[in-house]
Inverse folding.
């Protein structure tokens, strides 16, 4: 491979400044001797500069509505959706609560709670489930 | 500086400060990247807004396996391609999408940019812009365009050669016109 072909192989890395000092030195040594390759590299540098200038000159600023909208999008961190399993469990719990309320279960459990540890725990469980459901409903409503 | 990927993971875990930081890093760059494709501020802003919205919605499932910027630009480019497919089946700028009354200077600069790139395919334009305007590495471009680093390099070289040829033709025309005038 002659030096001109070698330059073609390495031109991307050379223009991007990614060549080692040794390889870049070799390219530059060739450029000092080859007018055609020197012109080619100079043209590529001019094109790149032209591209950057055109990009700078066509640059626009984001409008205020876009800025406002992006501020709003990022305002609330994402909420992980409950899994289908959790959804199902909560629906069952909700149905049980409704059923208990219909048959006066709350009153019975409250009355029993004075004398039974199990009934007290059941009461605490029901209250926790109710609070969990309320929190879920509030979270989904946001 | 905290990496984009770390910020995104923090955001997905509920850190409210992480997302505004990501927006501040990419909002303007992404807006202009899309604007150079669409020529329409309104459409570009819609695409940027939708892109960040999709990032937020996908955040709970985010895994830092891919570079954040590659992911972000992929979403934006897909939205732009969908918009094009909806309008017409081609990759070039649709006149109906371009701003009706941009400033005269901006329109002139935009036309110059379009004129420069008119003979290149979308992929070649993307490689040039991402490399020399956005400063992406060949590997990042390869990831975005779903091709090899070798392909990125050859597309970049082809595009530079094509633009050089075009510059040469323009220079010849200018000299001929100058000679005719004399």
């Amino acid at each position: 491979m002659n030096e001109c072909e070698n330059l073609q192989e390495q031109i991307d890395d050379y223009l991007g400044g990614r060549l080692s000092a040794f390889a870049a030195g070799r390219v530059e040594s060739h450029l000092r001797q080859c007018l055609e390759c020197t012109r080619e590299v100079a043209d590529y540098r001019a094109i790149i500069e032209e591209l950057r200038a055109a990009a700078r000159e066509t640059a626009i600023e984001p409008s205020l509505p876009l800025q406002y909208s992006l501020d709003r999008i990022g305002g609330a961190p994402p909420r992980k959706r409950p899994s289908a399993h959790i959804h199902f469990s909560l629906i069952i719990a909700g149905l049980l609560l409704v059923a208990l309320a219909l048959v006066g279960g709350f009153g019975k459990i409250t009355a029993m709670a004075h004398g039974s540890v199990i009934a007290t725990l059941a009461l605490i469980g029901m209250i926790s489930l109710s609070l969990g459901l309320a929190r879920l409903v509030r979270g989904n409503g946001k | 500086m905290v990496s984009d990927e770390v910020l995104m993971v923090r955001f997905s875990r509920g850190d409210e400060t992480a997302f505004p930081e990501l927006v501040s890093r990419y909002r303007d760059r992404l807006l202009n990247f899309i604007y150079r494709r669409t020529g329409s501020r309104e459409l570009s802003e819609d695409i940027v807004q939708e892109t960040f919205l999709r990032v937020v919605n996908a955040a709970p499932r985010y895994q830092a396996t891919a570079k954040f910027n590659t992911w972000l630009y992929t979403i934006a480019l897909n939205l732009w391609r969908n918009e094009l497919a909806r309008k017409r089946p081609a990759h070039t700028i649709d006149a109906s999408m371009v701003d009706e009354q941009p400033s005269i200077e901006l329109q002139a600069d935009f036309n110059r940019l379009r004129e420069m790139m008119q003979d290149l395919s979308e992929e070649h334009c993307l490689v040039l812009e991402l490399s020399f305007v956005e400063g992406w590495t060949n590997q990042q471009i390869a990831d975005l365009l779903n091709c090899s680093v070798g392909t990125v390099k050859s597309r970049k070289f082809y595009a530079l050669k094509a633009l050089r040829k075009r510059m040469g033709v323009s220079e010849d025309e200018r000299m001929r016109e100058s000679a005719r005038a004399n």
Q: What stands out?
A: Residues 128 and 156 of chain B are 6 Å apart (CA to CA).
